[in-house]
Design brief:
With 266 residues, the chain is α/β, with parallel strands linked by helices. It has 7 helices and 12 strands. The structure holds NADP nicotinamide-adenine-dinucleotide phosphate.
């Protein structure tokens, strides 16, 4: 079986370096190049903290794609760069697997159209943790029967945005199946601002930020005499790599853009 040839953009980052460690363990993946904005021409093996791949670092995606033959580009960088990489890769017939978050709706639409026009499979997944994706799907299912729900998300204290994208996505999935409902006592009043958390269509989202945490979420459903809690914990960035591998395997079979890992999980 021919190996899937992979380029990783952002190889020195927290996610990118984890992706290199994942690729090192896979017999059916072959790392063929890396994209960075520094260290042009150096080899990945020159970095002590990275796996000893004898592959070259390129700073220019066009030069990289014109020099190296690749099947998939895994992008784990920043929104502006990730968008340019994705667009360029599709134009060059290389399938993007994108974990970079923060694309605008317009960018997503443009990439969806380009992917379809070129017949090049693209996967953009804001959450690669399979457990987190399942948590969201289970929560959507439960919300049909338990319309009273609060979401508690907990992250490390370097996170810049609150609530997390996963919490917002969970609430929007629940919203698809739940009648709009204001929760709690109709006359409830906050005696301290923010005590009841953020509000999405009457659902409450609470965000906790503490050192030591990675990415955690509980979706708590309440009903007469019972509670149901659906809980997911990412303890390490390794938790995202099963999803990255799944996306690489699926991307080579697709000819359109798929947004969200749930859409490639059977
Ligand atoms: P990070 O540690 O800051 O890594 C980003 C890397 O991209 C850095 O090494 C950075 O280099 C590099 N970079 C910046 N500009 C570049 C360019 N033009 N070309 C190539 N590389 C460039 O961040 P991270 O935690 O790994 O996260 C990376 C992305 O993944 C973020 O968008 C984050 O939100 C997302 N993320 C997604 C998931 C998921 O499950 N989908 C999970 C976690 C994070 P410098 O440090 O030198 O600037």
């Amino acid at each position: 079986m021919e190996k899937i040839k992979v380029i990783v953009a952002g190889p020195r980052g927290k996610m990118g370096s984890e992706a290199l460690r994942m690729i090192e363990k896979q017999s059916d993946l072959d790392l063929v190049a890396c994209l960075d904005h520094k260290y042009e021409g150096m080899k990945i093996s020159e970095f002590d903290e990275l796996p000893p791949f004898d592959v070259t670092i390129y700073n220019d995606i066009v030069e990289c794609l014109e020099t190296v033959e690749a099947d998939v580009l895994v992008d784990l960088t920043t929104p502006e760069v990730g968008y340019l990489h994705t667009k360029t890769a599709i134009q060059y017939g290389v399938r993007p697997v994108v974990g970079t978050t923060g694309f605008t709706d317009e960018q997503l639409q443009e990439l969806t159209d380009l992917s379809e026009e070129k017949g090049i499979g693209t996967i953009i997944a804001p959450n690669f943790a399979l457990g987190a994706v399942l948590m969201m799907q289970f929560a959507k299912w439960a919300a049909k029967y338990f319309p009273d729900v609060e979401i508690i998300e907990k992250h490390h204290d370097n996170k810049l945005d609150a609530p997390s994208g996963t919490a917002v996505k969970t609430a929007s999935l629940i919203k698809e199946v739940r009648e709009s409902k204001k929760q709690g006592h109709p006359d409830e009043k906050e005696t301290l601002d923010g005590a009841r958390g953020a509000d999405v269509d009457g659902m409450k989202i609470h965000s906790m930020r503490l050192p030591g945490l990675v990415a955690h979420q509980e979706v708590v459903f309440g009903s007469a005499g019972e509670n149901l809690t659906i809980k997911h914990d990412s303890f390490h960035r390794e938790s995202f790599m099963t999803g990255v591998k799944l996306a690489i395997d699926q991307a080579v079979k697709l000819d359109i853009l798929v947004y969200g890992l749930e859409n490639i999980m059977e």
